[in-house]
Design a protein that fits this description.
mainly alpha; about 80 residues; F1FO ATP Synthase
Length: about 80
């Protein structure tokens, strides 16, 4: 029974570490949104191009956080070591 408890504990710690992956996309998206607003302030006529590019970049950045969430859910609920 000790081995199973150790695996559960390590899985929980691993899931927590995997969720740290959400910090990077949050910082990156905030930075991109700030720069996008700055660019629209400088060139209002290019607003549609700037927003389209910013949203595409945000979507790509968000995939990192989603991958971290999927790894955490696998470690918590679909652990093959049980």
């Amino acid at each position: 029974m000790e081995g199973l408890d150790f695996i559960k504990a390590c899985s929980a710690i691993g899931a927590g570490i995997a969720m740290i992956a959400g910090v990077g996309p949050g910082i990156g998206q905030g930075f991109a949104a700030g720069k996008g607003a700055e660019a629209v302030g400088r060139q209002p006529e290019a607003q549609s191009d700037i927003i389209r590019t910013m949203l595409l970049g945000a979507a790509v950045a968000e995939t990192t956080g989603i991958y971290g969430l999927i790894v955490a859910l696998i470690l918590l609920f679909a652990n093959p070591f049980f």
